[in-house]
Structure formats: structure tokens, C-alpha cells
Design a protein that fits this description.
- This protein is α+β, with helices and mostly antiparallel strands.
- The chain has four helices and twelve strands.
- Strands 1, 2, 3, 4, 5, 6, 7, 10, 11 and 12 form a ten-stranded antiparallel β-sheet that branches. Strands 8-9 form a two-stranded antiparallel ribbon.
- A hairpin with a 2-residue loop joins strand 4 and strand 5.
- It is elongated.
């Protein structure tokens, strides 16, 4: 394996997830609801990245770019609680839950904690048991920061395009190596002993060796029909922990309710819709 942290730079990364969530709940007290979470769905991550190499002046330039979209299967489970307070048709609810989500490309499930305070108003209709509620509030997400996993190279880069990009990359690596060597050989002995010049030369050679080894390995895997993989480790966090939510629930009767909630502002948007049935025990 080769560490490619120095030569790969990401211009953008967008993650999209769609989940079907089964949420059985029970009012253990008039002001406290507890529930379980059982989830299944799909997720995808689309990235736009480039390969960067330094020249003799230690100026880094993008030599090739690529985009990729990886698809994942998602399953998860968790539990939570919602303490509530209601006065004269107005209410406050403080939703808290924890969940463990297993993604097929990760070594272990991802832990998440969600906190959602909501403030709203419930309106009663003339027909018994029929109500309409509106609310607004916040939505805070914390996820475990360490992620490790492995993906087949064919899932990361389009195979049809890959050979041409590898060949082009190898050519640019060799051109850059020649340029760096020419610069170094043109220096006097005193200039070569200058710590700044030595650091530039050593950095360029280290990066070029990594790029060359990586591209040659990919080239060999493509030509020999081997299965190359990409192992990765991420330290991640939400760009914005909080965003704003608005929602509504229409209670048809004491058994059936439909609800929807939309989160926006900040860097995250989420839409939740649900059909709720209560046994009325």
C-alpha cells in the first residue's frame, strides 16, 4: 500500500442518504415517549479530486483530475426518547436519540447522536380526535469522527477511463522528474547543500516516487486483471452541527397520523416524512 495523502486533493465531496426508518414508540409517562430505530437504505458519496505534484520551485500543480461516485448499502438501529411539555395547545419537545449505522464499505458501524428541540402549536378541529400541529426548532447531529474502510478501485474510478488517465499520469510524473533532476544538476555544490534547495529536491522526489509507484501498481492491476483496492481512513465532522427545522403533523384520528419535517440553513438539508399508527392501548 502507498500513502497518497500528499498527492490527492479533494475539490468537493457530497454525501446523499435515503433511509426507510421503522420507529416503534411507547408513552411510558404522559410527558415521556421512548422509541426504537430500525433503518435500511442507500447512501452515495460523489467526489471531485485531482492529483497534485510539486515542481523544482516547490510549486504544486494539478496534473490530472477525476470524479467518482460510490454507492453503499446502509442498515442501522438505535433508540431514543422525547420529553415533552404542553400548555394550552402549545408544546415543547426535546428529542434525543443514538444510533449505530452499518455501511458495507466501512470496517465498523458509525455512531451518531441527534438532539432536536422543537416548539409548536396544536390546533383542534370540530371533528373529535382531529388535530393539526405546526412546529419549528433545531436539529443537532454529532457523528463519530474516525472512519476506516476499503473499496475496490473499480468502484472509485471509472474503469473505461482509468487506463488513459494512468498512462497520462505516468507521462507527467516522468516529465516532472526530468525537470526536477535538470534543476538539481544545474545547481552548484554550494547551492545543492543549501537546506532550502535540499528540502525542495527531497520533497519532489518523495512525492514523485509515491505517485509513480501508485500509478504503476494500478497499471499492473489493470493489465493483469487483478482486483486493486483503496484503503482509506477519514477523520470527519459535520460542517455545521446545527440546522433549522420546520414541520407539521395532521392527526386524522387517534390511530392514524401523517407528518413531515424539513431541515435547512447551514450546510445540511434533510426531509423526513412518515405515516404513524397508534394502537391506542
Amino acid at each position: 500500500m502507498y500513502n497518497i495523502d500528499e498527492i490527492i486533493r479533494f475539490n468537493s465531496a457530497v454525501s446523499t442518504t435515503s433511509l426507510l426508518n421503522f420507529r416503534p414508540d411507547f408513552w411510558v409517562l404522559p410527558f415521556l415517549n421512548v422509541y426504537g430505530l430500525f433503518m435500511k437504505g442507500n447512501s452515495s458519496t460523489a467526489i471531485d479530486a485531482g492529483v497534485w505534484l510539486p515542481d523544482s520551485a516547490n510549486v504544486w500543480r494539478e496534473v490530472t483530475a477525476f470524479s467518482s461516485k460510490a454507492e453503499f448499502a446502509v442498515t442501522g438501529m438505535g433508540f431514543g426518547m422525547t420529553p415533552t411539555v404542553g400548555v394550552a395547545g402549545a408544546f415543547m419537545a426535546f428529542d434525543l436519540n443514538v444510533a449505530w449505522t452499518d455501511v458495507n464499505a466501512l470496517d465498523k458501524p458509525v455512531f451518531s447522536f441527534v438532539f432536536g428541540p422543537r416548539f409548536g402549536k396544536s390546533i383542534k378541529f370540530k371533528k373529535p380526535e382531529r388535530t393539526l400541529a405546526f412546529w419549528a426548532g433545531g436539529f443537532r447531529v454529532h457523528i463519530s469522527s474516525e472512519t476506516n474502510g476499503s473499496l475496490p478501485l473499480s468502484d472509485v474510478l471509472p474503469v473505461d477511463d482509468l487506463q488513459a488517465k494512468v498512462d497520462d499520469g505516468l507521462e507527467k510524473v516522468e516529465d516532472t522528474r526530468i525537470m526536477v533532476d535538470e534543476w538539481w544538476n544545474d545547481l552548484s555544490e554550494e547551492e545543492q547543500n543549501n537546506p532550502v534547495n535540499k528540502a525542495r529536491y527531497e520533497t519532489a522526489n518523495r512525492v514523485l516516487e509515491t505517485a509513480g509507484n501508485t500509478l504503476n501498481t494500478i497499471d499492473g492491476a489493470l493489465n493483469d486483471d487483478q482486483t486493486a483496492t483503496v484503503q482509506y481512513s477519514l477523520t470527519k465532522q459535520p460542517k455545521d452541527m446545527w440546522n433549522f427545522v420546520v414541520g407539521s403533523q395532521f392527526q386524522i384520528n387517534k390511530h392514524f397520523m401523517v407528518r413531515a419535517e424539513y431541515g435547512f440553513l447551514g450546510s445540511r438539508q434533510q426531509l423526513t416524512a412518515g405515516l404513524q399508527y397508534r394502537f391506542g392501548l
